[in-house]
Write a structure and sequence with these properties.
Helix content: under 10%
Strand content: 35-45%
Strand order of the largest sheet: 3-4-9-5-8-7
Oligomer: single chain
Radius of gyration: 17 Å
Largest sheet: 6 strands, mixed, barrel
Order of helices and strands: EEEEEHEEEEHEEE
Shape: globular
Length: about 220
């Protein structure tokens, strides 16, 4: 990591989903199971108010019409917030009223991809992803650059990159892991893990990422 780049990766404890969370931006259902579906997580960079780059962990989600960023991260970076009045809806028409958005630059580690985007500011995106450590020994292809080298270790999600830029992030190259349903897709950030695999005693949480919102409703 270069001198002017910083890492933002606060740890916070996992917890049970409560009734208070029923209107969270993502619908989460908790149950016991043996199959884990991998969400496509990446390590990317965003610029703060001084044009310094910070590394954060995000999700790629083509099911979201908007880009999202955590409020605590916006405040830490001192990004200027714009007022908006957007009703964000998800599963079963549950909704959250979003009052702020920010404009910032996202990039990959070598700077070959840069883009200024608007992101809605939310209190929470999802719980720790994945919910527990997963044994992926022998499942990761050799000699590939992972977009998130800790995709199998529980960690917070700081941002979400939605359908607006999803497809421009993809690059040619897809690798199917032997002896599993894991697929590694190449992106501007490196290879992301997707697909599913069976793990013993895995606690599954169903993540629904269909989000509707309009960033053009800026006041």
């Amino acid at each position: 990591m270069r001198k002017h780049e910083r890492e933002f990766n606060p740890a916070f404890p996992s917890r049970e989903v409560s009734e208070k969370d029923s209107n969270a931006v993502f619908a989460i259902n908790q149950k016991k199971g043996t199959t884990s579906v991998f969400l496509s997580s990446v390590k990317c960079f965003v610029k703060d108010s001084y044009d310094e780059k910070w590394q954060i962990r995000g999700l790629l989600d083509v099911g979201s019409m908007t880009n999202l960023i955590m409020k605590k991260f916006v405040e830490k970076l001192g990004l200027r917030k714009e007022k908006v009045n957007i009703l964000v809806t998800c599963l079963n028409d549950s909704s959250v009223c979003v009052k702020n958005c920010v404009t910032t630059e996202i990039s990959n580690s070598d700077g070959s991809y840069k883009k200024r985007i608007k992101m809605l500011v939310v209190d929470k995106i999802t719980d720790l992803t994945p919910v527990k450590n997963l044994n992926v020994k022998g499942l990761i292809p050799e000699n590939i650059n992972l977009a998130d080298d800790s995709f199998y270790v529980p960690g917070p999600i700081d941002c979400l990159l939605g359908a607006e830029i999803f497809y421009e992030l993809l690059r040619s190259g897809q690798i199917c892991s032997e002896n599993s349903n894991l697929i590694f897709q190449n992106t501007v950030f490196g290879f992301v893990a997707s697909g599913s695999n069976s793990f013993a005693d895995t606690e599954a949480r169903v993540h629904c990422g269909l989000i509707k919102g309009d960033l053009n409703q800026t006041l």
